[in-house]
Amino acid sequence: MPSMHRTVTSQGSTLKDGIFNVRARNLNRPRGAACTATGDRDGSGAAATLERAASAPDGPTGDEVAGAASAVGTPAEPAAGRPRPPRVGAAAAATATLAATGVASYALLSSAPELPPHAIVVADDLTPSQLTRLPREQLAGVVLARGGATNHVAILCRALAIPALVACGPAALTLAAGSAALLNAGEGWLDGAADAAALDAARQDIAQREQRRRTLREQSAGQARTRDGVAIEVAANIANAAEARDAVLNGADGVGLLRTEFLFIDRHDAPSEDEQRAACQDVLDALQGRPAIIRTLDAGGDKDVPYLPLPAEDNPALGLRGIRTGFAMPEVLDTQLRALLQVKPLSRLRILLPMVADLADLQRVRQRLDELAAELGVAERPQLGVMIEVPSAALLADQLAQHADFLSIGTNDLTQYTLAMDRCHPALAANLDALHPALLRLIALTVHGAAKHGKWVGVCGALASDPQATPVLVGLGVTELSVSPQLVPEIKDAVRRLDSTACQQLALDLQALNSAQQVRARLQADAAALLR
Asked: For residue range 487-500, what is the model confidence (pLDDT) as tens digits?
């Protein structure tokens, strides 16, 4: 397998020329792809025979995808001094086949493709709709040449527990058909020369980690409280009722984020009011009495909905995003709000508004919600919350909290806009670290502003799913963490091992540091003392 000679980064650390040794034991052979990892805390991966598909404009044909081999997930210890990278997904299955496809592979992915059992798909990039069309039961992992650790495809991989590497560079597409590879998504590498001993060790390690996950899942029921009695709600980020049921099985206290945009993608027209009402009702029913935060349509940027008349923009991330899309297409927003007002019981429904910039945005939606409720004869109102994902919202949190029922921090976009780095830019992907001290200060400011009016603050962005960040968020005063369903048991376990007073001092200390690398180094050094 050709080496992927490209300087890439992994959560703030630079991996020179894509060649490094991530194992604690002394394995000196070169590593293949050094990518931005989107695997979970335990690491994930696969050892596979690559299947190379053509990247012609019409996409690969069925004849161009062939071959099969086994693959295993493997965790690995980080290299000395190298902090753990961002995470999405979970450990891969014990065996897998790796299928590779090029930049224009829509012909392969335009309908449900045929994949061999336990396949790892390698592509230049994928859209959310392309990813969702891949047969989940066949898919063991994803490797992308482009993308970012917090873009929509990476978020979807995390929600579906699919191990993934992103921003690997164009060399990922040169992987030769038939070659074996050992992929570790948690630590961000792809080894093209894995031997039998490495594969056996990986299989054993996966089995041990899966046993730990089963044990934590058995203990996940009930409230998560710190050792000194501070209650933290651990909810789940989901896209549909099936994931809501999975969240309940994993011990989630509710849904902290239902992404309604998945009702809109992979179709030719917008879902009707009845469709949206039924889908949201199914989620509430699946939660067996638990609450659900449902976000209004968050389209635009990297979340393309082709049939919506959104204009082409030079800077999509700074254009029609989130609630701005609703304001630009009021009939779409009205349909969604009417559907939500008809969900029962409204006492368990919380509506979340994305991309709110200031109080006027919130008041505009609040007024329209009241008008629609009056038209429908609905006397009760669901809670209405604001997503804090632009710096202006964090700076005005005290004003927003005076009129909102709760605040929920979207760390993915808040990081993008605070650090002025496109979350979809592969060259910047590893520098988009929500543990940057500037982000920690904005979170602290948000919590302080909300506390003035007795309102609670949650985090639904990727940072909440990072166990290394749990003591920081608890110390900052966040009282709700919404994570991938599969991570609920681990986050609850982490909360129960913390002392909130120690976490508060830690959060203050971290805000005085000057880089995300320093923050992660401090957390790594203090991990044993924090998580007793």
From this structure: 999 999 999 999 99
pLDDT tens figures, 508-530:
999 999 999 999 999 999 998 99
DSSP conformation class of 436: S
* Under 8 Å between Cβ of 378 and 344: no
| pLDDT tens readout for residues 476-490 | 999 999 999 999 999
Residue-level pLDDT at 125 = 86
Please state at what angle helix 500-511 crosses helix 437-451, rounded to 10 degrees: 130
- Rounded distance, CA 326 to CA 330, Å? 5
What is the 8-class DSSP label of residue 132?
H
Question: What whole-number distance in Å separates Cα of residue 304 and Cα of residue 308?
Answer: 9
Give residues with Cβ within 8 angstroms of 406, minimum separation 6. Answer: 350, 383, 385, 386, 450, 455, 456, 457, 458
Tokens coding 310: 């959104």
Cα 232 to chain centroid, rounded: 20
Q: Which own/partner contact pairs does 334-337 have at CB distance under 8 Å and 24+ positions apart?
A: 334/368, 334/372, 335/270, 335/272, 335/273, 335/276, 336/260, 336/276, 336/296, 336/297, 337/296, 337/365, 337/368, 337/369, 337/372
Amino acid present at 504? Q
Q: Which amino acid is at 83?
A: P
**Position of tokens 């849904």?**
255
Cis status, amide bond into 271, omega within 30 of 0: no
> How would you class 520 by CB atoms within 10 Å of its CB: exposed for 0-12, middle for 13-18, buried for 19 or more?
buried
Catalytic residues, by residue number, are 152, 460
Q: Which residues of 374-401 are buried (b: 16+ CB within 10 A; e: fewer)?
A: eeeebeebbbbbbbbbbbebbbbbbbbb
- pLDDT tens digit sequence for 300-337: 665 677 788 877 888 888 888 899 999 999 999 999 99
Residues with pLDDT less than 50, the chain: 1-34, 39-43, 45-110
Beta-bridge mates of residue 121: 99, 142
User: What is the model's pLDDT at position 341?
Assistant: 98
Q: What is the 3-state secondary structure (H, E, C) of 512-528?
A: CCCCHHHHHHHHHHHHH
Helix boundaries (H) for 10-145: 106-109, 128-133
Residue 416 confidence (pLDDT): 94
